[in-house]
Amino acid sequence: MARFVLVHGALHGAWCWESVTPLLERRGHEVVAPDLPGMGADTAPLAEVTLEQWSECIIDIARSGVEQAILVGHSRGGIVISDAAERAPNAVAGLVYVSAMLLPDNESMMGFAAKHMPHLGDSTIVCDDGISTRFDPSRAEQIFYNRTDPQIAAAAIDKLTPEPVAPNVTPLTLTKERFGRIRRAYIECSEDNAVPLPAQRLMQESLVCDPVVTLDSDHSPFLSCPAALAASLNEIARKWDVP
Fold it and tell me: Does residue 75 carry a catalytic annotation?
C-alpha cells in the first residue's frame, strides 16, 4: 500500500492528523506525520526556520522508505510539499493538496493570501518577537473549525502555536521539469472559511489536479470529518495505483 507523509498547515502540528493516521494505517498504508521545525512540539528556534528547512525535513522522510511517498499538504503545508517535490521529485509518488496552497512559480503564501484571502489579516496578530504571527483565538473556531465539534475545536485552539513569517513570504521556485512532472490531486473543503472554495478553485485553474474530491467540510477535515478524509486519501492512492 501507499506511504503517506502528512504535512500540517500554519499554526498547527502533527497532532492535527491524530484521527486520520490510524484510519489510513488500518487500510494498510504507512503514515508519517511530523512536526515541521519550530512547529508543534518541535523546539527549533523560529528565527532560524526557512521554507527550505521545512522542505528538507519532508524530503528526508520521503527518502527514508523503499517506495516513493505521497505528500499530503494541508493549507500552508501546500507550499512545503510543492517545494519538496521540486527539490526531490524522484522521492515523490504524488502530491495531495487538502484545501492547500497550490501556488505557481514565484508566488508566496503571503502574497497569494493578501490578494485572495485578505480576511485572514483581520485575525492575524504579529508576535512580540517580530518574526512570527499568531491567530486571534476568539476567531479561530469560526475560521478554522466551523464544522468541528466545539469541544474538539477548543482543544485544537489551545494547541495552536506561533507561525514563523519567513517561510510564508518566500516565493516558490518551481519548474515544469521537476515539480511539474509530479501528479497532483486536490481535496476541496466546501465550507472552508479560511481558504474559501473560490480561492481553492482559482488555484486549480493554473495547476490542474486529477482527481479533485470535494468534502462537506470546514478548513480542518482531519477534525470535522477524519473518516471521509482518510477514505479520500485511500481512493486517490488507489486511483494512482500507488503500491
Answer: yes
Q: How far apart are CA 33 and CA 122, in angstroms?
A: 30
Active site residue 74: no
Where along the chain do its domains lie?
3-240
Annotated catalytic residue, options 12, 219, 224, 232: 219
To the question of pTM greater than 0.85 for the whole model, the response is: yes
181 phi and psi angles, rounded to 5 deg: -90, -5
C-alpha grid cell for residue 219? 478548513
> What CATH architecture is 3-240?
3-Layer(aba) Sandwich (3.40)
Q: Which three cell numbers stand for residue 49?
A: 526556520
Which one of the listed residues 12, 29, 132, 192 is annotated catalytic?
Answer: 192
- % of residues, the chain, pLDDT over 90: 97
Regions of the chain where pLDDT drops below 70:
243
**pLDDT tens per residue, range 184-228:** 999 999 999 999 999 999 999 999 999 999 999 999 999 999 999
Distance between CA atoms of 142 and 78, rounded to whole angstroms? 22
Tell me which of 75, 108, 220, 232 is the catalytic residue.
75
Active-site annotation holds for 219: yes
